[in-house]
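Hi! If you just cloned this repository, the fastest way to understand the data is to look at a raw example. We've pasted two of them here, unedited. The first protein comes first, obviously.
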Amino acid sequence: MDIIKINGHSGYIPGNTNVGVYSYKNGYCMLVDSGINNTAGRRISEGLAGAGLKPKYLMNTHAHTDHYGGNRVLKELYPGLSCYASEQEAAFMRMNELEGYTLYGAHPYKRMRDEMFYAREFQVDGTISPGSAEFDGKKFEVLPLRGHTVGQIGLMTDDGVAYVGDGIFDGKRLDMYVPFLCDVEAQYGTLDLLEHTEAGWFVLGHADEVYEDIRPLVKRNRDSLDEYAGMILELLDQPKTLGGLAAEVFILKDIDIDLKHYYTCMAGVKAFVSYLLDKNEITNGVQDGRLYFYRG
């Protein structure tokens, strides 16, 4: 896995999860995310070794397994590595069953406890908050990117490169699934922030390219949010359960759903329902033991 240079000291290692790399002149570097598992972590190590680099810092954008699953093996390979995340995401990494609980609503059954939802627990060395941060004399801007998760953050380097995790989705993923969100209102805010972030390059957690102009993709993401909110509002002209509503959304969007993605897509549907409830555009109630949602 070779490091692709973007600008100055900033580059990335492409993969199923793109990993940011900021190199220092002394041969050390900072990583942004670590991939899904030990194999991904070892491949990152191989890429760094090929470039003569050793990681000194690792910042996780958020606590989904495909972004921190390689932390443990990197920590074992580089005992001096210091790892950081936001306070909220650090809690999910430390208590690794929380993701399954939030997606399922109860103790996750064994088939859910695979590497898509379940990485080994990990204790970060420190937490980090949005704003300015300094590591070894270099200044970075930590970006607040809530919406996909409760405390997602990104990192912008002094080279003008912004690593934004899953703060925004590429067109391929928008076409495949309901956006995996926990907070739609926060996601609108994140899109506004990214649209006005003065970076020359944007590295997404999952994309086949680095974006120099993020504005068209911001518009596409915003349009997707508007579309789903409008679709769900229209569907709720007739009362529906969450499961019934989700099924109709999947059919209308021609989403080929499997068991794993059912939970992430259902999380997105629930996020839109919460958004519409909080805007008083829909309401809910129990009838015959079923919870229905409908346009108020």
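Ok, and the second one:
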Amino acid sequence: MDMQDSLYRILGQGRNPMWEQVTGQAGRIREIRLRINQPIIVRLDGEECYLDGRGRFTGNIQEAQKISGQELDEFFMHLCQGSPYAFEEMLRQGFLTVPGGHRVGFAGQVVTENGKTIRTIKHLYYVNIRIAHEVRGVADDILPHLYRNGELQNVLIISPPGHGKTTLLRELIRKVSDGNPYGRGRTVGVVDERSELAGAFLGCPQNELGIRTDVLEGCSKSQGMLMLLRSMTPEVLAVDELGEAGEAKALRAASVCGCKVLATVHGESWEDVRSRFPELFVFRVFEQGVLRKDRRLGSDGNGEDAGRDSDPVGKCGTWHVVPCPFYRKYSGETDIGGNSGAPDE
């Protein structure tokens, strides 16, 4: 299924001719925002615009088409194929993954049990349709800088939200799994907590992650990494959007077991990430960093303006590759449960 066809299936083109115009631009669309009685907002090629009643993109809010509560109800029933209870578990997490690997996020009124456990979400009147893009070749420039003597290094991709780090990680997974000019194909274990990497729909991956890739979907990254280490013996672990302290222990266990790591995190620089997520650097797992081209990672770990001195290993189009200033190898044995010796000082 190509991107245009999959977007047709999300929007239900037969129900509203307006969406036919939109799906023709599927390759340029990053996300579509629907809010009750508010203008439809589209992020197109990184820029925000509105959608008018004929499906045309406009910068004039006066021409913007608004969407009603009834239309949002119909949209939700269309996504669930008329059976919302079949998707109840996904709804508890606040999103649905749909054919094509796209993710539809919802906000509305949360219904809880005992005031704690989320049972479901109703009145789903705020919708974010995030369009999944497989960009073949996006990792080609940085790939040679991520290997040393034919061995993949531990890599952390750092960028703010919406700048393509998940797309880059997805392509790196495929290249590492299939093999490339810089290293043989490796068994890759992917923990896809929110179904954004494989984009699995009813268990079937919608995105290509390589011939040696195993996917664990729908569980936390900290649990999932340890489960894959026990059950699938990966040579490489890949996770998207690190952010919890428990994940650092799982990363440590993977690294000490000899498993390489590919990961992403929100941030502007090494120093920014370290200040918000210090646990990630206690065991100094990551050897290389990948950062957007409008920032550089200096040798002291601080993000610097592009015009200032820095020491990138590779200036690779959209991305820079540099060593992690906090990396230092450590010794100590570990079991899969995460017990380990302290890092060398």
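That's it. A detail worth noticing about the second one: The domain at 143-323 is CATH 3.40.50.300 (Rossmann fold).
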